[in-house]
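Colleagues,

Please find the record for the two-part complex below.
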Amino acid sequence: MKDIAYVNGNFLDINDAKVSVKDRGLLFGDGVYEVAGVIEGVLIDNWAHLRRLERSLDYISLELPIDLKTLSEVQKELIFRNNMKEGTLYLHVTRGESQQREFEFPKDVAPSIVMFVQHKKILHISQDKLRAKVMTLPDLRWKRRDIKSIALLAQVLAKQTAHENGCDEVWMYEDNFITEGGSSNAFIIQKNKLISRKTNETILSGITRQAVLKLVEQESLLFEERPFSIEEAYQASEAFYTSASVFVMPVISIDEKIIGDGNPGPLTIKLRNLYENFAKSFINQENNE
Amino acid sequence: MKDIAYVNGNFLDINDAKVSVKDRGLLFGDGVYEVAGVIEGVLIDNWAHLRRLERSLDYISLELPIDLKTLSEVQKELIFRNNMKEGTLYLHVTRGESQQREFEFPKDVAPSIVMFVQHKKILHISQDKLRAKVMTLPDLRWKRRDIKSIALLAQVLAKQTAHENGCDEVWMYEDNFITEGGSSNAFIIQKNKLISRKTNETILSGITRQAVLKLVEQESLLFEERPFSIEEAYQASEAFYTSASVFVMPVISIDEKIIGDGNPGPLTIKLRNLYENFAKSFINQENNE
């Protein structure tokens, strides 16, 4: 079966899912996006994603042409049509198709909504993949990293460099302090204390990060919200990163420096288990609806 | 007559000119572009644009699937098919369409080439439009501004803010010094000396800027290549900006502060005339080929 995508009101075979070459998402990166995890056909923490989408849209002065409830119904329909069990659902909203290519916002142009799914293991990821190598690189991105925009070239280039160096993720730094991962939020553990940078314009407010921090609070774990340096990361007892598609990913090395004993740390494993249970709770909720 | 666009080998009615929702230009801003001016159906300084395209492609490790000569033939064909006299030709190359949305470069994916034209006055712009108002705003862009990437959201938002404030262009600044315009290079004149920032990673190497600087040299005009402050811009005797679609645009105010006597300055007009003649020289070259 071919994947089905959603494009502005239509469910289409992925090969027919196209947008105009005048779409401002294509010409300017003028759009914002979300990626939510799916397990057992159910979206994980989706309302937190949709609320962040609303904030991103607001930051770029773009109005969603349908309400979030309707958008979430479309998401569910897309999962159903793809008979999707596990993976991610990608969703973006751009400023639509304007006849003239001008930087300024066009008048009377409807935003363009695109969604598609990607089948992959996110909960049932194999144990031997839960061992991420991280490379650090300078953070070259723009200054409004709180906006989840589709203008992602800096992240593409950074993650590619990490990949070419045998690493799974990049941790970007600015003034010697880690900002965040190329597509994730970065955490370190010093003894039994978690450290993670405060979210503001310098990094994206990760949905999985937020959920993990709620679990940290529920479990009364020690937590300090502050930037940490590259050197602190090297010397951490544990390290991990979070995202909608990897949940809680243990880091075993940073710039080839082994973290802890080179295996996923105990507190990291505990947090992954807690997050997995949190993720599964959405399946139960859905089934009880 | 409907506009004709070029998409990966095909000349299409603009309404049929589409790309996949999986095009990495759309999903990541993973592509680079050029806009060249056209007068009397002839591309202005196009080889300088194509050579810059090659540099941009090289910076993002993307290989053009056809050679520049062939690309320029396609450009000419597109102008011919659109019966285009005056305006701009837009051209971009993205990393193509990959089935999986992953940040890392996909393997065995052909880059995607898109071109379209925009009819508008660039040489025959009316005199009353040669009076630009400029607004200054912080430069929020990423650090590799020498790459002419399609990830342009920062410029979109800045130019929109300028537009909402009744201005024609934004001049962005960093550490109190002007970097460049939202889609142009910035110049000021102190007495009879031109000042313009040196091109490096902090700004794009403008093609029109380069041509103007060559004219400045030929005419033995005074020129200093260095950053200038916002305060210096306010107090300049003349100011202007350059781009492929506005040539040399006189600035009459910056942040509502009147520049000179509030009219295009004499040296600016001289440079515009020199550049117009330079632009027209391409028509003669083409006709003699």
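Chain B has two domains: 4-119, 127-281.

Comments are welcome before we finalize the supplementary table.
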